[in-house]
Amino acid sequence: MKNTEIVEICPDNPQIERIERASEVLKKGGLVIFPTETVYGLGADSTNPQAVERIYEVKRRPLNKPLALHIADRNEVERLVDAPPALFYTLSQAFWPGPLTLILKAKEGKVGFRFPDNKIAQALIKRAGVLSATSANLSGSPPPFSLADAIKELNGKVELAIDGGKSRIGAPSTVLDLSSFPVKVIREGVISAERIRRLVRRKRVLFVCTGNTCRSVMAEGLLKKALKERKMEEIEVNSAGVFAFPETSPTKETIQVLRKEGIDVSDYRAKRLSSEMIKSADLIFVMQDYHRDILLRYVPWAKERIFVLDIPDPIGKPFNVYQEYFEKIKKHLPRILASIKELESSNREMD
Question: What's the pTM?
Answer without folding.
Answer: 0.91
